[in-house]
Every structure is written in structure tokens, then in C-alpha cells.
Amino acid sequence: MVTNQTYFRIRFWVIIFLVGFKFANPLSSDGWESSIWKEKNYQNKRISSADPTNGNDDFIKIPKKSTITIAEIKGRGIIKHIWMTLASKDPMARKNVVIRMYWDNHSYPSVEVPLGEFFGQGWGEEYILNSLPLVAAPKKGKSMNSYFPMPFESSAKIQIENESDEDISNFYFYIDYEEWKSPLDSPLRFHAQWNRSITKPNTSNQRENEWGLLGETEKTKFNKENYFSVLETEGKGQFIGLNLYVDSPTPLWYGEGDDLIFIDGNQTSATLKGTGTEDVFNTAWSPKEVFMHPYFGYPRVSDSIGWLGRTHLYRFWVESPIRFEKNFLFLLEHGHANSLTLDLISVAYWYQSLNPKPMKVLPKKEFRVNQPEINFRHIHKWRDSFRSEKGNGEIWGNE
Question: What is one Pfam family matched by this protein (predicted)?
Fold first, then answer.
């Protein structure tokens, strides 16, 4: 028998759940329930890899060292969904294949990113990602999806370049878009850019001192060149997202680095200043847990000692894009006072007016290879060096 107390307790938590869903669900917060039933004035269109003979070979082949245009759209519209998957003998295909997007007959691509890292999968790996704009879905992350709206006024073109030494035997895709009759109400276009840096300690003695383990922690001295640059761009737009792929050669926490965001010409004092890398990505206290929210998360964490190895973090500012009128600069410290060696790869996502100048050129695949793994064998060699330094003997390791 359900008592009144139990009944009201259950009713309370049901209400809390429904209210929480209303405000946490990004679809609900966008008011879909008040607009989805209203008449639309666009036509739904799709370009896909469907077999033109009506057979079951619903894929295309992309030979090694070749580029194929998979979609070329004339007219006005908005790409609303992209789905892709592939099969290749190259285990690093997702890192060695590049996706490019061009809008409105522009000479330069607005998107130029390795395929896996664009869709939220680092290091050529396959794993689940569940965010609002990007989803890597079962089987084991092989299904890559984008829900970023990508508007265009006169044309859109999407290319896939296979830089691999192996053919892509099966490349499947959908490009779902809306064909519009009325003009778009914004000149901003979707952009995405890849960046990488293998950082070095910029402390006064070049020691990787973090958490004060090697002596007093230094104060941060601002020097733009010492920071990892997530994005630097000119024009009018709004920044909306970041995938950050961290490969750490140290077991110590990599995330004491603050974010610094400079907006519209101010590069001496950050417009937006943060308190630590985990805080940028809406977590706390050096997490090592897989966690995925529509706006932020850690879909892949280090499975080694401490924070040694690979961690993937994401944050999407869909609740409030970061606006800029003239220029934008997003810097990130690598450890407090830029004290750590890290392999940092970022993919920045933003909207802005088409820029007459090209973006930073994506390095060829030979310059995008992963750093070698550091494992228990290397740690044992570190121990041997430590014992030798201490004169061998009865050395435990915490001396």
C-alpha cells in the first residue's frame, strides 16, 4: 500500500525530473514543441551514396591519394544533418581522411579537418560520442553524425580527400538539407579548423613543475606565443564549440591551464578568463571518468596511471555563442604557467562571414601522426634511472 508520504515523495521527484528535462533538454529549450507543428516553407533534400542502379552497393569507393566531391548543391539552403561511415584497411583512416566544405563559391574551404577529429573521435580511434551537435553512434562509434546547421546562399560543396596509402573500399554518407526559397537572414557561415602543438615547458628553468611537486609554483607571465592557440580569426562571427584531444607524456594532471579569450582587438587583457582546463569543459577536480552531456563531456579518458596518455574533452556554447565583431583569439595554457609538455589537438567550430583570406592550411598526414605511446616499460626505465641516481640499493621509489 502506498502511503501519502510515499505518494508525495514520488510525485515530487517526477515533477523535478520533468522540470529538469524541460530545461536540460536542448530541443525543449529551443522551443521545438511550439514550432515543429507549424507549416514550413522549405523542401527536404538529400544527397547520399545510394546505389544509382537500385542495387545494394550503397557506397562509393575513394581511391588512395585522391579527392572526391560527394556533394555539390546549387541554390540556397541549410545542411541540417551529415551521416558518414567508412571501411578501409588503413587503421588510421579517420586521421588520414580529410573533410572540406565550401560555401557560396568561395575560393577557400571553410572546413578543413581530418574526418575523425571533425566528428569527435581522436587519434584515428573509434569510440562513442554523445553530444548535441556531434554524435558517434554504435557500432562502437563507427557511425559519424553532425547536426550543425550549415547555411549557404548560392552553393555548397563537400569534398573528401583520402590521403591514406589504402583505398577506402566503402564510403557511405547522407547529406540532408533544406532547400530554401526566401533569403537567409544571416551572412554567417559554418567553419571548423584543426590545430596542433606539441608544447614545451615555458617556465624560467624549463622544468615541468606542476602542483608544486618540484618546488615553488611560478606565477603565469602572459606571452601569446607560449600558449596553445585554439583559434585566431578576423571578421564578424560567433564561436560555438571545441573538441580538445590531449595526449600527455606525464602522469600528472594536465589541466591547470586557464583559458583566455580575447574579443575585438583586445590582446593584452582577456575578455573572458577561466580557472583551469577542466573548468572550461564544465567538470571539476581533475576528472578521469567518461561523461557525456549535450553541451560538454569526456568521451575518452586515460586508462593509464594518473593522466598519462589520451583524453578527449568537448564543449559546445550552444546556450550562448561567444560573439565577436572584428576578431577573436582563444588561447589555452598547457599546465599552470605553461609548464607542461603535451600533444594538443583542437578542432574549433564557429560561424562567421566568409573571409577573403584563407584559413591556416591543414598539415599533410605525415605531420599529423600520433605521438608514440608511453607505457609501463618506459616507467620501469624511469625507475631504473632514479635508482641509479640514488646509488641503487634499497630504493622504494618515493624517496
Answer: DUF2961
Domains of the chain by residue range: 4-34, 42-180, 189-211+218-352+369-380
**Model-level pTM?**
0.90
Does residue 339 carry a pLDDT above 90?
no
Largest CA distance in the chain: 81
Nearest to 310 by CA among 230, 245, 397, 254: 245
Domain 189-211+218-352+369-380 sits in CATH at 2.60.120.1390
Number of residues assigned to the chain? 399
Q: CB-side exposure of 281: number of CA atoms within 13 Å?
A: 28
Residues paired with residue 71 on neighbouring β-strands, in sequence order? 158
In tens, the pLDDT along 123-140 reads: 999 999 999 999 999 999
Region 52-71 average pLDDT: 96
Range 42-180 has CATH code 1.10.10.10: no
Is pLDDT of 10 > 50?
Answer: no
Name the one residue in this structure whose C-alpha cell is 573500399: 169
